[in-house]
Specification:
Layout (H helix, E strand, L loop, with lengths): L5 E6 L4 E8 L3 E9 L1 H5 L6 H23 L8 E7 L3 H18 L3 E5 H7 L11 E6 L4 E6 L6 E5 L5 H11 L6 H11 L21 H16 L6 H27 L3 E5 L6 H10 L5 E3 L10 H13 L18
Parallel strand pairs: 1-4, 4-5, 6-9, 9-10
Antiparallel strand pairs: 1-2, 2-3, 6-7, 7-8
Helix pairs in contact: 2-3, 4-10, 5-6, 5-7, 6-8, 8-9
Length: 335
């Protein structure tokens, strides 16, 4: 069995069409991403039907570009991997069917990959993973603490009970009149403001690793409404800074407790919100000496196929292949 397998990976779970060629689960040979952000911006969020249409238009071109950039042919490949779920079902189906067609035509093994596993394994493209480890997953639809005792083993020890971090950012941004996606805009404003407003921190039960950001989101909206009713204008930089401080304090606080109680060797940051500069800085400050912290570069935080190829490498080694009945699964469980 080859030790440095070559995998073509495809990602179409939401609004990025991406294809990559990954060698040995650690080496990015190519990684092409086509974003639909401009198409969805005017709607204030991702429109599933529009996303699917763009994937149909782009998937063949993106796969061809990834193969061209990697300077490989289909005969050089050892497997084809694709995001199986979770995600938008119409978007997932485009990638799944493209991967199945390529795998069937070329006689290659097919590997279905969990989207969040991909975000976690994006860190493997930075440096080798050491187990046991803990991953803080923060994205538009997910806020989770995932414990991995060994390769390919996932235990969700904490998750959001309502809004995920990314959802809270987008809803608060919309209330502030900021364009979609709201996260980067709030992060930028927060850096220029001061946390002068006391927003709540939802710690939940003392032994819980779960998260809740719905109350915080509502508190921000109510505060802005109160300003408006008094005929006053809120300084949005300070609102953004106060909101972000509350989010980061809870994320870092619960993560710190989990790192100490589980005695992990590594802490990974994963997901689209991992691009948040305030969160990255807070984690680096808190965990500078207590545990090895891995934070992926910005281009590996948002959805991309390279992370899917990295996660697929673990399955390839174990011969955990999918059949041609593989389907898009929007509610796919990580465990």
């Amino acid at each position: 069995m080859k030790t440095e397998e070559l995998i073509l990976a495809i990602e179409t779970s939401c609004d990025e069409t991406s294809a990559a060629v990954i060698r040995g689960g650690t080496d990015i040979v190519s990684n092409v991403v086509s974003s639909q952000m401009e198409s969805h911006k005017r709607f204030g969020g991702v429109v599933p039907e529009v996303a699917s249409r763009h994937h149909v238009e782009q998937i063949t071109l993106i796969v061809e570009q990834a193969m061209k950039d990697a300077k490989v042919s289909f005969s050089d490949l050892d497997a084809v991997a694709v995001t199986e779920g979770p995600g938008l079902v119409g978007a997932l189906l485009i990638g799944v069917n493209a991967a199945k067609a390529i795998a069937f035509a070329q006689g290659l093994p097919l590997i279905g990959v969990h989207h969040i596993a991909g975000h976690i394994y994006a860190n493997q493209l930075v440096q080798p993973l050491t187990y046991p480890l803990l991953a803080l997953v923060v994205s538009g639809g997910h806020t989770e603490l995932v414990h991995m005792e060994k390769e390919g083993s996932f235990t969700i020890i904490g998750q959001t009970r309502d809004d995920a971090v990314g959802e809270a950012y987008d809803k608060v941004a919309r209330t502030l009149g900021l364009p979609y996606p709201g996260g980067p805009h709030i992060d930028r404003l927060a850096a220029a403001g001061e946390a002068t407003i006391s927003f709540p921190r939802a710690w939940l039960e003392s032994d819980s690793y779960d998260f809740s950001f719905s109350g915080l989101k509502s508190a921000v909206i109510n505060t802005l409404h109160n300003y408006k009713q008094r005929g006053e204008e809120a300084k949005i930089e300070d609102v953004a800074a106060s909101f972000q401080q509350s989010v980061i304090e809870v994320l870092v606080g619960k993560t710190k407790r989990a790192v100490e109680e589980l005695e992990v060797k590594q802490l990974l940051l994963a997901g689209g919100v991992a691009a948040n500069k305030g969160l990255r800085a807070a984690l680096e400050e808190e965990f500078s000496t207590s545990v090895e912290l891995i934070i992926p570069p910005l281009e590996l935080c948002t959805d991309n196929a390279a992370m899917i190829g990295a996660a697929a490498s673990s399955k390839w080694k174990q011969r955990l292949f999918s059949g041609y009945d593989l389907n898009g699964n929007p509610g796919l469980s990580l465990m």
